Amino acid sequence: MVMKQYDIPVSMLRQYCFCPRIVYFYLVRQLTPSEKLWMKQGVDEHNRQIMLNNRRNLSRYHICADNWKIRNNIELYSKNLSIHGICDCIIETSDEIIVVEFKSNEHLMCSAGVKIQLCAYVMCCEEKYNISINRGFILYGRKGQTYEICIDEKLRIKTIEVVGKIKKIIDTEILPDSTAEAKKCCQCEFFNFCADRY
């Protein structure tokens, strides 16, 4: 029996938490929606944060280290989880590696999807560097507010569960149910493809 190979972008884990149908439309139907204005704004803000991050010290992350390096847009993958993606930022000190994800939201809105995406990148880093990582950061909005996330066993299990659910969507090729409320549907790039929604 041949094992099926998966190649799941890490961003799909966050998308799955927003609505499982987004994963279906991207990975099964292979649809590419037109870019929304807010998507372009997010990319612009992301690029701005990279530029600013290169000028910053580690105080906003509450890290005290003499030797440190910030690396941006790091390609990562996990052979174990069959996921890949480009991590926004990795902070390397002599003691630890810390993953940082940038989000353009102005308020601290640390959803389950954002935490799972961060955890997935942490697990990719652990596999790549053969180390254990117990925390990461979300950097929010134009002011670059930071929010520390504990990468505990519960979050790791949830991340693995979401990967499994995405693999099931790919395998079955069946449109999953959506529990998204109207507020989410209105901002979804695939809104017109869901005939049973609002």
TrEMBL record:
Gene3D superfamilies: 3.90.320.10. GO terms for molecular function: exonuclease activity; iron-sulfur cluster binding; metal ion binding. It comes from Ruminobacter amylophilus. Mg(2+) or Mn(2+) required for ssDNA cleavage activity. This is CRISPR-associated exonuclease Cas4. It comes from the Bacteria. Residues 11-195 form the DUF83 domain. Belongs to the CRISPR-associated exonuclease Cas4 family. GO terms for biological process: defense response to virus. Its cofactor is [4Fe-4S] cluster; iron-sulfur cluster; Mg(2+); Mn(2+). NCBIfam families: cas4 (TIGR00372). The keyword Iron applies. The keyword Metal-binding applies. CRISPR (clustered regularly interspaced short palindromic repeat) is an adaptive immune system that provides protection against mobile genetic elements (viruses, transposable elements and conjugative plasmids). CRISPR clusters contain sequences complementary to antecedent mobile elements and target invading nucleic acids. CRISPR clusters are transcribed and processed into CRISPR RNA (crRNA). Keywords: Antiviral defense, Exonuclease, Hydrolase, Iron, Iron-sulfur, Manganese, Metal-binding, Nuclease. Its EC number is 3.1.12.1.
